[in-house]
Design brief:
ATP-binding; ATP binding; about 30% helix; metal-binding; alpha/beta; six-stranded mixed beta sheet; about 160 residues; YlxH/NBP35; 4Fe-4S; 8 strands; two-stranded antiparallel ribbon
Length: about 160
Amino acid sequence: TPAERTNLAGVQHIVLVLSGKGGVGKSTLSTELALALRNAGKRVGILDVDLCGPSIPRMLRVQDSAVHQCDSGWVPVCVGQDKAIALMSIGFLLERPDDAVVWRGPKKNALIKQFVTDVAWGDLDFLIVDTPPGTSDEHISTVEALRPYQLLGAILVTTPQ
């Protein structure tokens, strides 16, 4: 719908960060990529859809921040003194940062779709999407929710095993 498209209308490029297993450094790579792009003068957002292990708020030292609502949806947390990185994560919606998210597939998939459609990103050069580990339904939900938008590509993080 047109209302859904408006929240990502100002995003120029979307990059997925994926892996086939956990513990390979997806969140670290997503964070470092966002910081490098910011240092290159780009406007950057990170969408942390790792629902069971949202570590990016802690990596960027904003784990105690709160997400607010505006007319067009959730306002992402702005990171750094220059507020140049916008971040949305389930970590901001939990009562305590270490709380576990024990949800079945449909609820996880609905939240992913809501993150894609209901976050007011504004104008960004890049949106980095940090996905959960493995090859779950959440990946399919993320790609399906982002299908109407211009994906730049994906970064597949692996380990030499």
